Amino acid sequence: MNRCVNTRGFNRLLTLQGLRCSTAHSAHPDSVSSPFVFHPEGNECINANAKFCGECIQAGAKCGWCKDPTFLKQGETVSTRCDELQSLLKRGCDEEMIENPHGMQKILKNKAVTNRRKAAEKLKPEDITQIEPQKLSLTLRSGEPQSFDLKFKRAEDYPIDLYYLMDLSYSMKDDLENVKNLGTSLMLEMSKITSDFRIGFGSFVEKTVMPYISTTPAKLLNPCTGDQNCTSPFSYKNVLKLTSDGKKFNILVGQQQISGNLDSPEGGFDAIMQVAVCGEQIGWRNVTRLLVFSTDAGFHFAGDGKLGGIVLPNDGKCHLENGVYTMSHYYDYPSIAHLVQKLSDNNIQTIFAVTEEFQPVYQVSPLYGLILTIYSLSKTLLLHFYLIPFFLFLAVFGRCPVTINIHLVFFFYPLLLRSQVMFSISVTSKGCPMQAKSETIKIKPLGFTEEVEITLHFICECECNKEGIKNSQLCHFGNGTYECGACKCNEGRVGRQCECSSNDVATEDMDRTCRKDNGTDICSNIGDCVCGTCECKKRDNPDERYSGLYCECDNFNCDRSGNKLCGGHGRCECRVCVCDPMWTGSACDCSLDNNTCMASNKQICNGRGTCECGTCKCTDPKFQGPTCETCPTCPGVCTEHKECVQCRAFGTGEKKDTCERDCSYFNLIKVKDRDKLPQPNDASYPVMHYCPAGPDIIPIVAGVVAGIVLIGLALLLIWKLLMIIHDRREFAKFEKEKMNAKWDTVSAWNRNQLRERGAR
């Protein structure tokens, strides 16, 4: 899985631990929340208590500043201009009046990685590109990540320089014999990987002072005991400069002799320092640089030189004369951190080939097999980040075409020749540097000369800050700078318009103007009197605010409906609900929309009630229901108008004598056929409905007859089934009784036979 890596600090060596990825995976830092960016509880914009726009945008990427001069309400502090974008819009600040700058990135140098094969035309190392891009510029806003892709592709047939540094103390005698034939074997094996390989050799023993060696004349000539013939002790010798001649390596190494010293730790760190900083004498090229350090003992480090009276710290400079380190008696051993820095600065990858006692992990035999393993390690990628400011956070996400493996002590990206590794790097700043000056950071693959240079610029002020008017008359006769819709007071001035001196803020006269109705409470006990004006306190909930001339208002103590402030259909202003359109009531819970009261005849409440808050209240007690259309006690329409229809259509009925007087309240349309009756949607449909058509008798009778027949058949089938079941039970009972009778007959015969035999 992908893992973010915190590179907080000045120098960071980045090892990508346990990463697994494939070409199909596309991790992006924006899709995740970085564990290194600080997320304060609550609204970080309000918590910042920003007094001006620059402070606001540094509080977080979600923060905006409303520069509308009329935005603040009575009692609100200047810092309430700083809030999350959605909150500012909700509070009435137009989008174009919100300062919300964003970062950007620009690639300055983007030379494509080199694609070549061993058989292709030879290129100089400086003409080979393995990392892309090479230079870019990032403009950062606090809390807002900027991401870019970094591509690395190891060039095939890339040159390699390998320097073998060996401990020649007496205990390494057997190992020297193995190294004598290393050159030819290694050249042969490395030719399978690269056609441009060079090898060098150096040796070390110890500082040439007491108590590290014996300084008696005899021991200076031959430090070994008995009949052993050893060379004089020395600190470090560059025996063979890097060369492509493997035979020469074998010859010179074969001429080396073992030496000796008194103590167990060796002076190998002195030798490593000289190999790292003496590039010209060693013959390092700007290619892959490998240093193999072979020993069977521990090491001396900074401070151990005091035993020999050496107190000057190692200066990290080259002191080789004729290939010999001449200042071992003058400078102390280097520290581990100093040594690591120099190796990193010179792009040298160091491999410690030590005995089992000191590092069991590095057991390899034969010796050239170790070197091939070393080059295998060099095909892994170790990123080094330089000059990282403390307020900067980097998150690295890897995308590679192979599975990640774990190698020895560190975790790396394995690189296959011709394969390509992609990194997505996210850079986030928290705050701004002093004076908002730009910074430069570098990313370098360890062991390679190429690097990525990133120039960082920081957004520390708003654009509206450039339009600020110093000593503006809007700020009480020039006592401040008017910028971004607010006054930024000069030193010693306070107040929204910088109208007061900081020395005169807490006076009785000013406090008097902050008391409502000459009461005793200053700013209703929920605010501070600043320059004779109440500045209300903030709530823990950023959506809740106090306001008003005396902080007597708030936006959260209004009537509720359905457990919602203002019923969810309005906003609370000074403890009174201001309802949305089409809503009314103290809690905005009364709808003015009549659609819910519309009956099926398109009349509000069926013409028999009034619509109040979206609900019908029926005025006719006979009618009920949501739209006053239900009348349980009302007669049918035909029954109600029967007498009038009879008198007007046929001149009959009980009202034939009073027809004109009692039955003229509706229109009557005569038709010859029932099918010609007007329908409700017709224009000729009368005011009063016609009686509904009578039922069709034939289908009803047919249905009843069919039902009776089916029920009869069903009953007959059930009776028949019951009779069959009953007959079977009776037959089974008969068979059983029959068998019992036969058994009784046989038993009687058997008893008679037994009696006759007994008589005999």
Automatic annotation (TrEMBL):
**One GO molecular-function annotation for this sequence?**
protein kinase binding
List the PROSITE patterns.
I_EGF_1 (PS00243), I_EGF_2 (PS52047)
Q: Name one GO cellular component term.
A: integrin complex
Give the membrane topology, semicolon-separated if more than one.
Single-pass type I membrane protein
> What positions does the domain PSI occupy?
44-94
Look up keyword Translocase and say if it applies.
no
**Taxonomy, superkingdom:** Eukaryota
Q: Which GO terms describe its biological process?
A: cell adhesion mediated by integrin; cell migration; cell-cell adhesion; integrin-mediated signaling pathway; muscle organ development
Q: Where in the cell is it found?
A: Cell membrane; Cell projection, Invadopodium membrane; Cell projection, Lamellipodium; Cell projection, Ruffle membrane
Q: Tell me which family the UniProt entry assigns to this protein.
A: Belongs to the integrin beta chain family.
Q: Which PANTHER family match?
A: INTEGRIN BETA SUBUNIT, INTEGRIN BETA-1
| The protein's name | Integrin beta
What species does this protein belong to?
Scophthalmus maximus (Turbot)
Please name the gene that encodes this protein: ITGB1
